[in-house]
Structure prediction request, 422 residues.
Amino acid sequence: MQYIHHEDMRAWDRFFRVHFINSLSGFKSASLLGTSSGSGRFNLAIFSNLVHIGADPALIGFINRPREAAPHTLANIEASGYYTINHITEGIVRQAHQTSAKYGEDISEFEAVGLQPQVRGTFPAPYVSESQVQYGMRLEEVVPLRQNGTFLVIGAVEEVWLAEGLCLPDGFLDLERAGSITSLGVDAYYQTRLVTRLSYARPGQEARPIL
Amino acid sequence: MQYIHHEDMRAWDRFFRVHFINSLSGFKSASLLGTSSGSGRFNLAIFSNLVHIGADPALIGFINRPREAAPHTLANIEASGYYTINHITEGIVRQAHQTSAKYGEDISEFEAVGLQPQVRGTFPAPYVSESQVQYGMRLEEVVPLRQNGTFLVIGAVEEVWLAEGLCLPDGFLDLERAGSITSLGVDAYYQTRLVTRLSYARPGQEARPIL
Prediction:
């Protein structure tokens, strides 16, 4: 096998290290975060470092880079208290990726990349109309991480909008059917194919495939 | 579309809610965490809620459930300061899933599920021999999350062991070739197929596919 020591990593070119470390931790659920600025402008940005925190209460977090590197989404979330998270399908991968360009504060990424904001009376932040899985989040806490100036942004799930037929009888969401992509590193997007679902594991019993 | 309000979720059956919320945030990088107890017993557990925190320094986090629900891995990490993270391939999905069974403290999941611990002179925690992507972590901080009693465990990448040929010339790891699975919910495992890699996005320029 190939061996890499952490001192080797420090000596690498910056972009090589970014690609390597961003793919080392594995596949991610890149999604589009929709927010509204104080003046009512809609902001849209791709975030790939989402993490499930708990089901009851329903909590999901994401890592926000230091403020100077990624200011708009976090400022809007802190000012308004709300944001949407929208899954990305193969058909909108290019537009989703393009939201990572550094547009000025006076530009809405929805218009710049060609995605349709969907405003619903139920929620104070814009959804992505093209998305098959959309959920509205209420900010719980912004936790600063002292190691590198990033933040863990924790939110509570307020509401969910799903394309019909995605929620199976046991609550599991068939995201392969939805066409939700998974991402890797900072620039790669993948479709998925189910290997298996397995029953709850117990000592001394082999878990069975769930049909 | 189907609409679900958060008050609906609170009324759901517990397992339905677990399946739903655990799949809502999208695909995850379930991996096997290897630790060593004070008495030298090797512990192995599947964790799916990993998150990239930063590339320089190289930091990766994971969410640990409340101590009473998932005590062994976290206790070993706190006592020793070190742990390994090992990717899961299709060939070891059943064994990996089986590590989630509640084995007693005196049982090594490596033996119970049939995976081979690999101890290397370079690192004080056991790797999973069958894994194509293995990395060794040094504990940085255990951050308690007050919302639900879980923890964000932050670690620094100390060393990496990779099967030959996975690291592309720009540092990107070809995890589709490695066969690393992605997971969804609490029990589903998927293979991946590349849709595209896209060049760095700039305003007014269309990102190009990277070959």
User: Anything to note?
Assistant: Helices of chain A lie at 6-11, 14-24, 72-80, 93-98, 109-113, 175-178. The radius of gyration of chain A is 19 Å. The first strand of chain A starts at residue 2 and ends at 5.
